[in-house]
What we know:
The structure holds 2 protein chains of 2 kinds.
Chain A: E1 4-13, E2 16-26, E3 31-35, H1 42-50, E4 57-62, E5 65-66, E6 77-80, H2 92-102, H3 107-120, H4 136-148, E7 154-158, H5 166-183, E8 186-191, H6 194-200, E9 203-208, E10 211-216, H7 218-223, H8 228-233, E11 239-245, E12 248-251, E13 254-257, E14 268-273, E15 280-282, E16 291-301, E17 305-312, E18 315-322, E19 332-336, E20 343-345, H9 352-356
Parallel strand pairs in A: 3-8, 3-9, 6-7, 7-8
Antiparallel strand pairs in A: 1-2, 1-4, 4-5, 9-10, 11-12, 11-14, 12-13, 14-20, 15-19, 16-17, 16-19, 17-18
Chain B: H1 2-5, H2 11-16, H3 27-55, E1 57-59, E2 69-70, H4 73-79, H5 85-116, H6 122-134, H7 137-150, H8 157-183, H9 186-193, H10 198-227, H11 230-236, H12 243-252, H13 256-283
Antiparallel strand pairs in B: 1-2
Helix pairs in contact in B: 3-13, 4-13, 5-8, 5-10, 5-12, 6-8, 7-8, 7-11, 8-10, 8-11, 9-10, 10-13, 12-13
Amino acid sequence: MTAVALSHLSKRFGNHLAVRDLNLEIESGEMVAFLGPSGCGKTTTLRMITGLIQPTSGDVLFDGESVVGIPTERRGAVMVFQKHLLFPTMNVAQNVGFGLKMAGVDKAETARRVTEMLELVELPDLESRKAHELSGGQQQRVALARALVVRPQVLLLDEPLANLDANLRITMRQLIRSIQHEMGITAIFVTHDQEEAVMLADRVALMFDGVVQQVGEPDTFYRRPSTTRVAQFFRNSNFLHGVRSGNVVSTPVGDIEVDPVQVADGSGDVILSVRPEEVKPVLAGSDAANTVPATVESVIYMGTHTQVVAKIGNSVWNVQTAAAFNPREGEEVLFELPKEHVWIVKDDSNSQPDAVKAS
Amino acid sequence: MTVDTKEPAGPAAESQEYVDVTERPTVTAKWVRRLAVASIAVAVGLPMLSLVVWSFAFRWNFPNLLPSEWGTQAWAYVADDSSRVVEGLWNSTKVAVLVTLLAIIVGLPASRALGQHEFKGKSAVEWVLMMPIIVPALVATMGIHQIFIRLRLTETLFGVALVHLIPAIPYFVLVMASVFANYGTALEETARTLGANKFRVFRYVTFPAISSGLLVASMFTFLISWGQYVTTLLIGGGTFVTLPLVLFPFLSGANHATAAAISLVFVAPAIIVLVFTSRQLGRESSVMGGFGRI
């Protein structure tokens, strides 16, 4: 139950700035996801929290105290990696009890806590098995138990579910979430899978090129992406350029009204965005507001819904409609962009390369 | 990973699932295996058998299938001090053990660096390490000889061990580097975060994991030192006698019985070491994944 703070944290490898001026406060008992594509600096950040690598500048604080000078083994920040999970020469009980042995806990107490923890991860009676006799999911659970049994200050998970298949991932996700809640442990995990981040974390920190782009509760990434890249990472590439004056944005395909309470910022040249699932097809002659004409380019029936790719002005939009909606290719249709779902994003599509090789 | 795809949700069901690692081989596979073992045994064993016969031969002339007269005179000579076989055996053992220890001290950190880290000039280091395999150790020994004379290392156990290290190190490092590469750093890092300091990480995590590979590498090193002739001759100066030095004159000579007897003494440790290590490895072959990558 430790609050973690990262303050102006940076890490440089040679000429490459892997993490740049990262600031984040993680509350005690909170579960935070570092989300981003590979090479964005998320794992580097995790390793700086453990002390396995030292920050180039900045500070890591546990409960307000800097831990940068404290070696890994005395920090209490326990890491679970995605591969090479278990010590191969030890059995399950020895693996789980490893941290307790290092801490000098006596044998009876160790045995008790190991048993208790194996029950918590729903793996009783496997104490004497070796790592290679367990399935991938079981190894994952043992690794989790081994980390939790020492009651860590912070639990760090590096792509914890990456090596598991889809069904198992869902089970493990629920297990991790429930144990983390039950024990009230502060946990940080890294992932490149936005779905995983959204389903598991209390808050998500999205990173590109060593820089945190946006921090917030999962739904803000869907409803309020800060930039075009953030929106795209969450599978929304519906953008429409326009000029805003007051609450109206005039675009090449007509005026779009925005909600001034939601969209307070942004004037002049702006980019509008509406999530694929919020765009609604309407009949011609309908009295709905904020409608735009669109030309259907492709229609894919997905069972529960229909995926329509359509051109609105010069932009290509993805629209997720009811399964019953079935226009022909090339057909002119009308889409409603509901006022409450129209959001303005910043354009950062040109800002990608400079961050990679900042010197 | 077929197990994962049908992993049941309930804990009760899951605990039943057990990956059976000891798959039963088919009857054909069993026979192929036996045939392979048998042919290897014949290929290795038959020449050995002829050595044994030779070593007890007193008179064995051409078309006879077996010696016409038997005797133990060759073995008596081997046991006699004047033959220097016992002295050579003892010296060979001392040198080979010392070379193995030195290889571990020098080679373990080097192979770890090569197997797990990227650094500037890594390929240059790898090239230098491979040089003794490409260039005969004799070439280096000629130059080293001069320096060893000045350092008073010639005709000494330590000097001979040092020069044996040249051909031995590449093999040791090759094996260990791939063991380290295969083993990775994640387990050690996990252990660090779980409260183990660097020393305890090595003792409880690294060493148990690499020990089988270390055994193989040490065996290689021991046997390379065991078989050295020219390097020993040059640095030992004929005063420091190892088993190959005792054996070689007999191989070109006409006394086949004595040559056979000394040869048997010469190969015996190799076979003992081989049997011993293969037994050790048989117990825990999973750790030897890296060995297959060479």
